[in-house]
Amino acid sequence: MTLTLAEAAKLSNDVVVQGVIETVIQDSPILQALPFIEITGNGLTYNRENAAATASFFSVGDTWVESTSTFTQITTSLTIVGGDADIDNYLLTTRSNIQDLQSAVIRLKAKAVRQKFEDTFVNGDAAVDAKSFDGIDKMTAGGQIATMGANGATPTMAKFDELIDLVKGGPPDLLLMSKRTRRSLNTLARGVNSFLQTERDAFGQMVQFYDGIPIGVSDYISDAKTVGTSADCSTVYALQFGEGALAGLTAPGGLQVETIGSLETKDATRTRVKWYVATALFNTLKVAKLIGVRP
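RE: above sequence
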């Protein structure tokens, strides 16, 4: 069973944890949509489907040809992301009537955890940082890729449609792009006397849709990638979420807030925000990217 962080927050009786989760998901279209599978142990071994089986028509007496889906066995280990936040006891005592310093400091630390996760979700490479996990850019390397050309080019709606069509078994659940690319997409829509669909989501925020697919914006998608002779390229990702597609992995309890207590060497109280987390791609046909997107 998969749960988004928003649903997990409803099941928590800890007001602090609920507040931290709300802070984490508030400005992240990724964490608002990404479902998480709770696993027991330090990792998950699963079969990633690479190619689907085929079927054919046969005549009486024909020799039947065997066709089976191909898989790659993948083991994904949970990583540890988090940080400590110290609150000076003097300030906590003397300034608490002005602002709840502990709540403010914990929320800022939770925001830092969210930023680290989102950066890794996009750009993570366990071969570079063995303590992290692979992000969607590495997951799609050598796989489902559409391109704007050898040296990149300004985006077109036809290329966005091509990207969407690369995702099999249903439409993507999210188109993830940089702010610059979203501006380009808005310009494209206005150029044909149209506008992207806009609706208010469950968090009260306005979300744009392209062909019925939500558009997510990430600050961690670079606009300075090199494609051919162009060094001003960006990438757009099409993502389908779920247990048979792209999902997050988390330890029981999910995002945690732990009170460490008083410190020995200074007059302060420490709180730790931590998350045992990773991502899993169960089928390579569920994610795709469009590279070489220029301004």
